[in-house]
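=== RUN LOG ===
request id: a7f3
mode: sequence -> structure
chains: 1
length: 126
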Amino acid sequence: MAEVVALRPKERVRQDSEPIALMYRNMGTAAAEEVVTRALGELGMTMAGLADRVGQEDRHDLMRQLRRLQRMAEQLGMVSLGQVAADIRACLDRGDPTAFAAVWARLIRVAECSLAPSRGLLDQRP
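=== RESULT ===
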């Protein structure tokens, strides 16, 4: 009998702390913290909305929401999240459901790593 191996992908999430540091330098600690916290909340809500749509197989407006996710991630220096959002848009453009499913799973993993409190995005402030 063959042995089944469960694969557990680990994501290496890349982040660029410069956009956050720039906000803190330009706005001051309190204002920047408020902006970053609000942006992270919006990013989380966007991911939740995308998950609902994908779960219901509702592709309407998915491309626009993914573009929004990509833009928000890039503005916060979430390099990996922005790149995977771009990759999944490419899968939609090609009409490749298998690639879409694989990249969607990766987007979920990267989003979880990027948004996890232990990642400490706010701790990247100068």
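=== NOTES ===
The radius of gyration is 16 Å.
Residues 29-55 form the longest helix (27 residues).
=== END ===
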